[in-house]
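Protocol step 4 of 6: structure prediction from sequence.
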Amino acid sequence: MISKEFTPKRTLCKVRLQVPAEWAEKEVAVVGDFNNWDPSSDKLERKNGGWETVLRLKPETETQFRYFIDGERWANDEQADDYIANEFGEKNAVLKIGK
């Protein structure tokens, strides 16, 4: 699940990413162009019966991302705003942050 909430001055958008508990046994990382595709940067926490994290992204941007699960497989979020083909013959999910 993806939810977006702007800060009061609209200088940042807090994007909450949540995936079901059964997606992973050990860990879920969100990787994308916002963290140079580094799987050690942004881990989701076990919380509320699933995995979740909050990213802080700038307004008026598009961000590509994927989930890296248990250090071995990739997945996209079904609620992404769009999908773009990547150089590996798969697709990256896209978050579009408005004004």
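Step 5 (inspection) to follow. The chain has a mean pLDDT of 96.
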